[in-house]
Amino acid sequence: MATDATQLPTSKAAATEDVGQIPQWQLMVRRFRRSKLSVSGLYVLIVLYVFMIFSDFLAPYDHNRLDSNYAWAPPSVIGFENGQLVTYKLKQTLDQVRFEWFYEPDLSAPLPIQFFVQGYEYRFLGIIPSRLHLFGVEEGYQINIIGADKDGKDVFSRLMKGSQVSLTLGFIGVIVSVIIGSIVGTASGYFAGAVDNFIQRLIELLRSFPDVPLFLALAAALPMGVPVEVRFFLITLIIALIGWTGLAREVRGKVMSYRASDYTAAAVAAGASHWHIITRHLIPNSLSHIIVVGTLAIPGAIGSETALSYLGLGILPPAVSWGVMLRDAQTIEAITSYPWMLIPVGVLIITVLSFYLLGDGVRDAVDPYA
Fold first, then answer.
1. What is the model's pTM?
2. Listed residue (212, 208, 90, 101) closest to 150, CA to CA
3. pLDDT digits (tens, 9 = 90+) for 347-360
4. Domain map of the chain by residue range?
């Protein structure tokens, strides 16, 4: 039985009435906002990337700062005394049987937590020199929000610094992969014939190699002594060169169907150039699918960088990423005695899950039949 629009709730009736009056992108945003999980994933990613941008400001110490007095130090105890946030000095004792350091907070020796303090020098956004940090304690002591590693390095500072690599390398790699896959797939589907045959055979050749061994072989071929920035760039290229083939085939199928449509035939009959047809008709119609595939590919790229760094073939010390931190936590001793070393695992899981939730919402939003 038909339902009159006036019988619908006010918000739904308004949404039904203006469907034909608002731009397509607004319809996509409206459809995306229906998924609470996807919106939550977007908010989490925004928070993570804000933390990444301000990571040097949030980190109280340099990620390679050594202090043997805090080797395997647990998370600092935070208290509130005389109207001020404080932490406490640590009493360090050595277990003569197991030869392990044990720490106990000295509640009689509080250390005031200071805000907006001067610390190690960094460049905000890689441009602006600064020494300002959000918090810190008296010089000569250390506050470890989530503990320290075997060398006394602050895990929180390393987690913040590592986000710069782990959250950007995979993202940039996917962007490059999407660009390559879109161009190659469009060319293959539009020109067909010998061009399509050559491209498809090349894709089949690349896809015939197992992904993991190919990844490891390419990463192992990288020179070990190159600067961190160069290694970052080379690993990004590896992620891009391996990940473009699937998207290229999907875009090829889309372009082939659009190429046979009436509006493409009309453009050809009107004398439109290949460039005009590709940029005005084929790629715009394939764009929603490209965005969805790219969004869902980002967590895989982040995982690839993490896996390579964990195996010692990706980002190498003195640089730090979440994969490098996980390599420091691969022993049973670290897992059982120092559980804070596994915090990067939790952050990585949250990041990947948020990207998948976001990708799922974007897929539903750009699907006109959702």
1. 0.81
2. 101
3. 989 998 999 898 88
4. 59-148, 158-366
